[in-house]
Amino acid sequence: MNNLYWEKTGFGNIDLILLHGWGFNIKVWNNIIPLINPYFTLYLVDLPGYGHSNNCLAIKINDIIQILSDYMPNNAIWLGWSLGGLITNYITIYGSKNIKAIINVASSPCLIEKPQWPGINTTKLYNFYIDLRDNYSTTISRFIDTQTNNIYFSKQYNLKLKKNILTYPYPNLLALKEGYNIISQLDLRKDMLKINIPILGIYGYLDILIPKNIANILDKKLLNSHSITLKKSAHAPFISQPKKFCQHLLEFKKKFFK
Q1: Per-residue pLDDT tens over the stretch 83-102
Q2: How many helices (H) does the chain have, and how many strands (E)?
Q3: Is the pLDDT reported for residue 153 higher than 80?
Q4: Are the C-beta atoms of residues 88 and 80 closer than 8 Å to each other?
Q5: Residue 187 in contact with residue 160, Cβ under 8 Å?
Q6: Which of 7, 87, 130, 220 is most buried, with most CB under 10 Å away?
């Protein structure tokens, strides 16, 4: 089966496609949707193998971009978080869509740590994969705790976010394994140099997976790239600081698009 699930909402004149990260689903965006609904038409996508797309078998990277190209609109801004950012970059380079701009959230052209390239430690990545595979709900719950572990978040906020994500269909095991393969193997650093549309990067100062210094590296290497680091955020700045996160989205829209 190759039934991709997405939800469309919002009232803005610019289409914004949101791709979630590894192991998650569209419910991870719940806290920012009300803040940006008036300004964008949102396409909230359950990536193949995740959420209500958990029976979709298009889990290889080329199959993912093909099915996204089939269903998503032209002339949109694509926003991807972590693995979703890697897919966004890939479809910008190799896909058939006309893309207005891309927004990478805690992501980069190569998510894995390399010489002179900050990224995810391979041992940590593998351990996270095993945790997702063997104890999904506990792993997701623990991750959310690390993003909301400060005085600004109530227990109710934390519990509601967990409930939204964990009462949704779980990802299938093949998608989790293929997500691990994509993250550990895909390196788009050379190909990203060809992109000449606006690129916004949003990073977390406290992120231990994608270190904050990747922002400066990308802004020096890539055309039309501008990055922002949120000081009180880690790997999911749209969870940690939703208002500031959305403020930067709207400033980016205002700068480049009517």
Answers
A1: 999 999 999 999 988 999 99
A2: 10, 7
A3: no
A4: yes
A5: no
A6: 87
